[in-house]
TrEMBL record:
CDD domains the UniProt entry points to: TlpA_like_family
TM helices/strands, residue ranges: none
Domain Thioredoxin: 25-171
Coiled coil feature spans: none
Name of the protein in question: Redoxin domain-containing protein
SUPFAM superfamilies: Thioredoxin-like
InterPro entries in UniProt: AhpC/TSA, DUF3738, Thioredoxin-like_sf, Thioredoxin_domain, Thioredoxin_ResA/DsbE_sf
Signal peptide: 1-21
The entry's keywords: Signal
């Protein structure tokens, strides 16, 4: 491959940013008098924030499609139980009531759930664009911190209850569109690659190939390789040294910012160029090996399946979310890939199905094993097994 021009700019500091100053301005000010309506899973159906005067209050915004939100529930439940005399935790769910009812059937929750489905009436008090989003209010009614439950520790809870300054890291829960690393274009024939260090104040962002530009911000070497090689995330990646330093996240050289700008390149050419760049400078290298590993095997329960066959003139369309997969004229490989992503285990398709199907397959993050019941409804099942699988092996000196 011939480049007209290559410009390499390495290790330029990124500028810190906070994407919604509105939220941070609320810290240190009295919390608004909020009336909580449509309260589920509590002894009362409604209450006001002032009803908990003399207690510290944590308001946690979440949704059923937010895995980090759900993963934070055990510690929120523990804190509510351990500090019930001094603390009230209120969760606000941004889902329809029917979905929350189903969630509570699948996963018992020892916290109240306030429905926020009426034009996001509670978001106006604490503006944000993404969840989790967690508000700390002290016993005097002052907003002490705005963070996410995943960043909260027992130390922060004790600070809140004691009336001390809460040292939880600020986060507004917004993933802002970050500026390009390279900046303005330098002509139609230039090829530029820029590398920048990890920025503790920025989010982890991947911008797919568009207009000759491919961008990674605050991403680990392993994730960058998985994207460039179009390899399943986590499930088919292994480290040659399981204790490798670069398996971590947070040190300045464990994740980087990396961008290519090549207006004449295709996506494949841009990916190849970055891989060539990484082969010369990255502390993590890759190789591919076939190994026998534990997998889940997708098979039919009988000779027939209970899925609608697509018509020959149906336009293929597949969309996925944390709440399921919708297929229009999609192959069974799309369902297998969705299951692999959400179960975090290689899925081997041994159904023998080659037709295209229309399928609406629900997913419940709070109860992953419910997928077995859903699969049975369409005549499929998953079983444990061992198979030889081509793996991406990550190699590092330390």
């Amino acid at each position: 491959m011939t480049y007209t021009k290559i410009t390499l700019i390495a290790f330029i500091a990124l500028l810190p940013f906070f994407s919604n100053a509105q939220s941070s301005k609320l810290i240190g000010k009295p919390a608004p008098e909020i009336v909580f309506k449509e309260v589920l899973n509590d002894s009362k159906l409604s209450y006001k924030l002032s009803d908990f005067k003399g207690k510290a209050v944590i308001i946690d915004f979440w949704s059923t499609s937010c895995r980090p939100c759900i993963e934070s529930f055990p510690k929120l439940e523990k804190w509510q139980k351990d500090y019930q005399k001094d603390l009230k935790i209120i969760t606000i769910a941004q889902d329809k009531k029917a979905r929350i009812v189903k969630f509570l059937q699948n996963r018992k929750l020892a916290l109240p759930v306030v429905l926020d489905t009426n034009d996001q009436q509670y978001v106006k008090y604490f503006p944000h664009e993404a969840v989790p989003h967690t508000i700390f209010i002290d016993k005097s009614g002052m907003v002490q911190s705005i963070t996410t439950a995943g960043l909260v520790t027992d130390k922060h809870i004790k600070e809140l209850i004691a009336g001390k300054k809460v040292t939880a890291q600020y986060s507004d829960g917004v993933e802002k569109e970050i500026e390009n690393l390279i900046g303005s274009e330098q002509g139609e024939t230039d090829v530029q690659i820029v590398q920048k260090p990890f920025d503790k104040n920025a989010y982890s962002v991947y911008k797919s190939f568009k207009n000759g530009r491919l961008t990674f911000i605050n991403m680990s070497y392993s994730t960058i390789y998985e994207i460039l090689y179009n390899y399943p995330n986590r499930t088919r990646t292994r480290w040659e040294n399981p204790k490798s330093y670069y398996r971590g996240w947070g040190a300045s050289d464990q994740a980087i910012g990396l961008e290519i700008y090549a207006p004449k390149f295709t996506k494949e050419q841009a990916s190849s160029a970055i891989l060539g760049y990484l082969s010369g400078i990255a502390p993590v290298k890759v190789k591919f090996e076939e190994r026998e590993i534990d997998v889940k095997v997708l098979t039919k329960l009988s000779d027939t399946v209970k899925m609608e066959e697509a018509k020959s003139d149906d336009t293929p369309a597949v969309s996925t979310s944390a709440n399921g997969i919708e297929m229009k004229s999609g192959g069974i490989e799309n369902l297998a890939s969705f299951l692999e992503d959400n179960l975090s285990k290689p899925i081997i398709d041994e159904t023998g199905l080659t037709k295209k199907y229309n399928l609406s397959f629900p997913w419940y993050p709070e109860k992953p094993n419910a997928c077995l019941e859903e699969l049975e409804k369409i005549g499929l099942t998953l079983t444990d097994g061992k198979r030889k699988v081509k793996l991406m092996i990550l190699v590092a000196d330390k």
